[in-house]
Amino acid sequence: MSSPNQRHVLSALVQNVPGVLAHISGMLASRGFNIDSLAVGETENPALSRMTFVVVGDDRVLEQVGKQLEKIVTVVEVLDVSSQDYVERDLLLLKVAAAPGGKRAEIRELVDIFRGKIVDVGPEEVMIEISGRENKVQAFIERVRPYGITELVRTGRIAMVRSEDMSGKVNSGGIKAVSA
Fold this sequence. Notes:
By secondary structure, the chain is of the alpha+beta class. It has helices at residues 20-30, 59-70, 102-113, 134-144, and strands spanning 7-15, 35-42, 48-56, 75-80, 86-97, 117-121, 125-132, 149-154, 158-161, 177-179.
């Protein structure tokens, strides 16, 4: 039995047509499922998009979300990525107060420690880009908060199941797939 607060990373391959995002997010909302994170983008096939979203709940919630997605005509396939060995990334852009001098140097050092980049420098603030797992991005936010975050924007989570190992097996077992 899974925890009621378990985070499930789902990846839905959908037809790249107008209204798919609204249809899926509306369906989930109307049934009381909250989307914790969402990212959508075209795939290697321009006719398809990949929606990666995070829902929180137990296995029953995951099963119900899968059943609801199964009913949508434009959904081609759904994967429970979090049940696999996978790589995930979040992208963060943030502006932080950083007047020239000591504080700016401290911020630059934090950016280096978190393997980020300063992508813009203004007279009194810098814009920083950080990517990585959600906990890394969140830890960076907490470390720079005392300096004064003036603006912050994040992507939704993106995730991809790792490649097969040398024996031809998927690294962590079978894939739960729902095809419409």
